[in-house]
Prior knowledge:
InterPro entries: Ferritin-like_SF. This is Rubrerythrin. By secondary structure, the chain is mostly helical. The chain has two domains: 3-58, no CATH class; 62-289, Ferritin, core subunit, four-helix bundle (Ferritin), CATH 1.20.1260. It is built from 13 helices and two strands, in the order αααααααααααββαα.
Amino acid sequence: xxxxxxxxxxxxxxxxxxGRFDSRRAIFSSLGTAAKRSALAATPLxxxxxxxxxxxxxxxxxVEVLQYALALELFEQDFYGKVKASALYTAASAAxxxxxxxxxxxxxxxxxxxxxxxxxMGATPVSGVTFKAAVFATLTTFKTGPAATSQxxxxxxxxxxxxRAYKGRAGELLGTDLLTVALQIHSVEAxxxxxxxxxxxxxxxxxxxxxxxxxxxxxxxxxxxxxxxQFGLAVPAYTTASPVENNTTQSGVPITxxxxxxxxxxxxxxxxxxxxxxxxxxxxxxAGGLIxx
Length: 293
């Protein structure tokens, strides 16, 4: 993919295109070596972020990205609050309760930071994003039994979704200080996911062989029941599905090729964590179906 050829073609229909990109030189200079720039410029996510920044009227603002992140954090904060108030939590082991307590503290801190950042940019933070009480009532165990009916089973789904959600929007913050903030939160969410998985006796990383592997959280695309516009969140246009978690090709490279017979497709897929777009995260088959009073 020739980035400069693309820009030249755009110039034929938009005489101001070079001026648009000129103000974004910092994006390229911050990438380091020419090899890194070439590799990143060949990826759809990078190109998408670059064009969105050049054509600001067609992209989300930094505030909209932060509002989305805050909605996710409020959702998780409320979920863990409900867990801590439940009889199942009371009967859990001291170690498990300590882990949930710490994760809840992290979510509280994330909410405080994002609210402050959004208010500091002159906007009103989103509110009222809660885990649906009727669904929570169906969670009949703390961490044993069917994964979809245990509190920690749902926690795993939420944390894995959060990790993919942050990754899905990081590109929109390129060239801003807010990218650092988002990545700081993203890495902690990944640690939460790993901890919850370990507590449940699953592998610490996403893999096609665990007990929730067939849940829609780990697939991509949007179903007919999608309702992505909740809480006034700005939802970027949805086009093609994000990569699925059992993807074995990265940046056009088939990972299984050359690894040898000791590596399975599952091994290759588990070495990479895929992103999700906003519409996919808020689809009713995933987080969207769990949000509500």
